[in-house]
């Protein structure tokens, strides 16, 4: 990352560049990108998480996509230039040179003087680098830290445009030849007046130019707030976000500062429409992975922008010519519902978790199990069960005593718990890590009468496990067939199959799977969907499909004389595809709560689907009374139909490299108004 500010702040910004180089190096080491030079420039190695690898992969892919497109379309030109702003320890020049793509192109990199000097010393000291670039002399002339025939490394503060212009003249750049400007997470660290001046200067000074910008957006939603807090804590605030928070404001920024064309695409759109499907599958299979929500949220908060001026039509950047389905337009909402914290404070600490399951095991008693969260002062897979009990209108939380705790329950995530009576529930599936899902089933027995926090106990009993239970992110829903009760286990994923589309009928007394005929159009495989009991069958909504794309379909598994039948539930307007939501049925209405979708301009609230008419209505959740970001994915929810109260428990996740966010305490929503208005 390059020249933004002087003084202590610039040192903090340079620190983000060092971290970025290490992340790129780690991604290359795991096979996400082919780059044998990045490790040489990063200096040291550090293994990053798969989520970070994916994030840096899509960043590198987007920039490479734009650079190669520029080089391809200008290959008939006698000379072209790439000017990388805030290049840090990036390896772009060496990769392009190694592939023979710089036969008529000069790459010029600009960064802080001391960063440029460090990089120059690295190049001179590593034969594999120095032999590629050669040495044309000229170092020490003004701001030139290193000079080769087709490579110039300049030490200049980008905010000092007069010095930058002099340095570029000394390096021999030609303002009349096609020039590509690159800025990867650079402008946002500058004061907006300075970054805008840089954008305007580039358009004014170069007659034929393209600009590629990779940066953050959407600062005000829950993920955006966590992202901003992270950079503020690093003393590297993201200045662009307040003035340029989304696609359209960034596009207008360039059009108003001298550029004639501009296109913006978030990284979900780029990955979906610009990365070939076989390459998508290759990347998705590189490492065990189970952080889909954070991956898609990260991608919805970063964009790649391409702008152009003075370029021949045949040279127009590819992204400017692409038409993708608009996922950033506003979602039409019919109203809002206010979220109110339950006011438990310290009692709620054990409910700060995600990937857990909550079940209403008797009136006003909610049992929460598993997940990843905050326990004993650290983040870990949760060992303890917690109970919420409503007494005199107030919710109280407490830790549950586990009897027969020698029985392993494996501190699992993404399992299900189905309450079969006032004293018995069945836990099915779940995982410890993405490579271990053979956790099976577990009976949970609890007293029939106790509603007291201090005496609530759960006994764990291991039954013989059906292989059908070895999955996670699935659903287990109670159905009736010929007077017998079954759990319908559907979808999910396993350690070997990223998406499952099968189903099983588990007899709740015998705990064995029974073959029951099912006819009709088979839904595509999915996980992280919702499932609700309705009219003796099951309503399945949304989920994440085999291509890691959210689904917008709704199916009803209906009981018929000799078995069940899949039926498609048509919705209008069409349901916006989503996953990692929860769902409830109330009086012929299906309620979908939260989740993740690709409409990056907003986050899902509550969607009401009228099961009689198919009418689909969206409501936003107002969080003005909450002092912390409310992340509505990987959460659980309980609907109390008599009071029309929706209780949201837990939720959050590992927010890319920005830290783990856990919703602070349970939140209550009163749905009376929206349920009576339908």
TrEMBL record:
Coiled coil ranges: none
Pathway: tRNA modification; wybutosine-tRNA(Phe) biosynthesis
Record flagged with keyword ATP-binding: no
EC number: 2.1.1.290, 2.3.1.231
Source organism, top-level taxon: Eukaryota
Pfam families for the chain: Beta-prop_TYW4, LCM
GO-annotated biological processes: tRNA methylation; wybutosine biosynthetic process
Top-tier EC class: transferase
Keywords, in A-Z order: Methyltransferase, S-adenosyl-L-methionine, Transferase, tRNA processing
Annotated GO MF terms: tRNA methyltransferase activity
Region (Disordered) location: 1-22
Xref: SUPFAM superfamilies: Galactose oxidase, central domain, S-adenosyl-L-methionine-dependent methyltransferases
Reactions it catalyzes: 7-[(3S)-3-amino-3-carboxypropyl]wyosine(37) in tRNA(Phe) + S-adenosyl-L-methionine = 7-[(3S)-(3-amino-3-methoxycarbonyl)propyl]wyosine(37) in tRNA(Phe) + S-adenosyl-L-homocysteine; 7-[(3S)-(3-amino-3-methoxycarbonyl)propyl]wyosine(37) in tRNA(Phe) + S-adenosyl-L-methionine + CO2 = wybutosine(37) in tRNA(Phe) + S-adenosyl-L-homocysteine + 2 H(+)
InterPro entries: Gal_Oxase/kelch_b-propeller (IPR011043), Kelch-typ_b-propeller (IPR015915), Ppm1/Ppm2/Tcmp (IPR007213), SAM-dependent_MTases_sf (IPR029063)
Function, in words: Probable S-adenosyl-L-methionine-dependent methyltransferase that acts as a component of the wybutosine biosynthesis pathway. Wybutosine is a hyper modified guanosine with a tricyclic base found at the 3'-position adjacent to the anticodon of eukaryotic phenylalanine tRNA. May methylate the carboxyl group of leucine residues to form alpha-leucine ester residues.
Family as reported in the entry's similarity comment: Belongs to the methyltransferase superfamily. LCMT family.
Record's subunit section: Interacts with RNF144B/IBRDC2.
Protein name (Swiss-Prot/TrEMBL): tRNA wybutosine-synthesizing protein 4
